[in-house]
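Hey, sorry to bother you again with one of my protein questions. A protein chain has come my way and I'm curious about its shape. I'm sending you its amino acid sequence along with the backbone structure tokens. I owe you a coffee for this, so here goes:
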Amino acid sequence: MSHYIELIKPKVVLLLVFTAVVGMFLASPNAPDYFKIIISSIGIGLMASAGAVINHIYDKETDSQMSRTENRPVATGSINEKNAITFAMVLAMIGIMILILFVNYLTALLTFLSLIGYAFVYTVLLKYNTPQNIVIGGASGATPPLLGWVAISNEITVNAVCLFLIIFTWTPPHFWALALAKKDEYQKAKVPMLPITHGIKYTKISMAFYLAILWFVSLLPTLTGLSGSLYFWGAHVLMLGFIFLFINSIRVSNKNNYMLVFAYSITYLAALFIIMVIDQILIA
């Protein structure tokens, strides 16, 4: 059973579901529909889990060559491909049916497209063919808060797009920090991450570019009226921490500092959305 739990990448899925729940609460600040929030979270979580399983299957050979992933169930043979495929199909079918029957058709459609985007467009078409894999493929990973918003409102709004853009612009510096730390492993596995194809200096310049965009994009909820001053100043403080660690990784370039940037980026995103929800509650 533990192997199947590992197969769905629970930490990643929990972060995705968390951002989806944030979208749900932001879409219904005054009267949250807790049944819909719970059932939507289950449906979105199952679909995200199915995508994670497909990623394990396709990345089997690559995972076996990297220390970070060499113990994954499909890579080690703990779960064979046939069983993993069946598991992914069951997760996806249950997830999509929950969203169709208990949420709405738009959420079901967008979640299905996100699954296709991550499992096939990113994993199969982009990951091994372009150093922009994270940038383009990041669109599917950025959808959960938008999905959460649509689950409650049944429409795509400007605020929902703002939430999407935050994660979309956060993804490149987040993953490129990991790519810098694991450069040799990605090179061994023949994954064309940016530090390998364009070098470390170019990667850091690209990270700085996306951090600047993220700083601006993170303030959009205030400009649209979704959030207030607490979020506005909180977003600044969190970004300053991100930039400080990034500059430190430039000053002292080593794996530990790159991993600090990677770890902080996760904390940054979670804290940003938590502050957004708290701010929304105070405004309401």
User: Anything to note?
Assistant: The chain has two domains: 1-156, 157-284. The chain has a mean pLDDT of 92. Residues 255-283 form the longest helix (29 residues).
